[in-house]
Amino acid sequence: MPDNLQKQTSRALILLWVVPALWTVNYIVARKAPGVIGPHLLALGRWGLAALVLVVLVRGELWMQRANIAKAWWQYLILGALGMLVCGAWVYQGARSTQAMNIALIYAASPVLISLGSVWMLKESINKRQIVGVCLALLGVVHVVVKGQWTALSNVQFVVGDLWIVAATIAWAGYALLQKKWPSPLSATARLAAICLGGVVSLLPFSIWELFQPGLTAWGAEAIWLIVIAGLVPGLGAYWIYGWAQKILGASRTAVALYLGPLYAAVLTWTFLGEPLGWHHLIGALLILPGVFLVTKQTQK
Fold first, then answer.
1. What SS3 class is residue 51?
2. Helices in the chain by DSSP H: which ranges?
3. Separation CA 148–CA 273 (nearest Å)
4. What tens digit of pLDDT does each residue of 173-186 get?
5. CA-CA distance, 40 to 37, in Å (whole number)?
6. What pLDDT does 301 receive?
7. Spatial separation of the C-alpha atoms in residues 142 and 134, rounded to whole Å
8. Assigned domain for 3 exists
9. Tens of pLDDT along 36-83?
10. Between the CA atoms of 182, 187, 192 and 193, what dihedral angle is there, to the nearest 10 degrees?
11. Which domain holds residue 269?
């Protein structure tokens, strides 16, 4: 492996551990949003801000690549709808009526879908060690979200909000796989800018409708702060790192980082919200972390 590629791979593997931490900020945003700002308006503000920042940063490249962007405009629209409309607004919508345990259980299927899809759609290889890692990490995720009480699985009741999360889970798998299936001449930053613009277009009609619905949005400093935080941290930061890492590592290896979400969320709620940590978090960590290591570990050649 060339030195430059080796360095990029090592950097991508390190940054993968950061992505779920950035995404957990969205849990706080989703909790604060009801009564402050509607789900589609929040997603529009989040990705509109991200698009503005990215376009300013890569305006030269976007102009030089305008012919390629115009030719593949439908790809950016589809990716924007999947990654920003469904995985953005629909998650905020679902969080209004479903429990965190249900969301975590459903989202735990996302890396599995991506791993299976990468083998089927992208012809990526997956070895026995990685399969063991996926199963181990998934086992740890379920252990965390059921708080170590496996009988609780039979008591989980699904509500309308769960359907929004199921759709978002499937959409995220599609978003990750299609990014890899549709190669782009754009840099990671420029491509994310184009996808954000596609997301803004797909969100706009729903946001206009939502703007006139009473009780959904109360414009003020809190709403603006939610947009800014969502746009910069789980938006720009997480999506850029994820897309860049996927180019280097492949869809299945990158997806396993999502398994770290419940662990990071437990630490975040303990630190900022005072929610206690339990033994199930520790046991979950002892399952998830080795699983992530087995999947992302580079094969020696």
1. helix
2. 3-16, 19-23, 25-32, 39-57, 59-64, 66-71, 73-80, 90-94, 100-107, 110-120, 128-145, 160-181, 188-211, 221-230, 238-249, 251-255, 261-272, 279-296
3. 21
4. 899 899 989 989 99
5. 9
6. 44
7. 12
8. no
9. 999 999 999 999 999 999 999 999 999 999 999 999 999 999 999 999
10. -120
11. 11-296
Instruction: Give the range among 93-107, 116-130, 231-245 with minimum mean pLDDT.
Output: 93-107
Single-letter residue type at 194: A
pLDDT digits (tens, 9 = 90+) for 189-210: 999 999 999 999 999 999 999 9
Q: Counting every residue, how long is the chain?
A: 301
The answer as to whether 301 is a domain residue is no
Taking alpha carbons only, the member of 168, 174, 160, 176 closest to residue 257 is 176
143 by DSSP, 3-state: which? helix
Tell me the Cα Rg of the chain. 19
Give residue 108's pLDDT band: very low, low, confident or very high (50, 70, 90): low
Question: Quick count: other Cβ atoms within 10 Å of Cβ 236?
Answer: 23
Indicate whether 27 pLDDT > 80. Answer: no
DSSP state of 182: S
For residue 5, being part of any structural domain is answered with no
Select the highest-mean-pLDDT range: 107-111, 129-133, 242-246.
Answer: 242-246
Q: Are 197 and 186 in contact (CB under 8 A)?
A: no
User: Could you tell me if residue 149 is inside a domain?
Assistant: yes
Distance (Å, rounded) from C-alpha 21 to C-alpha 265? Answer: 8
Count of domains observed in the chain:
1
User: CA end-to-end span of the chain, whole Å?
Assistant: 9
Dist. CA 205–CA 190, nearest whole Å: 24
Residue 69 tokens, joined = 């962007």
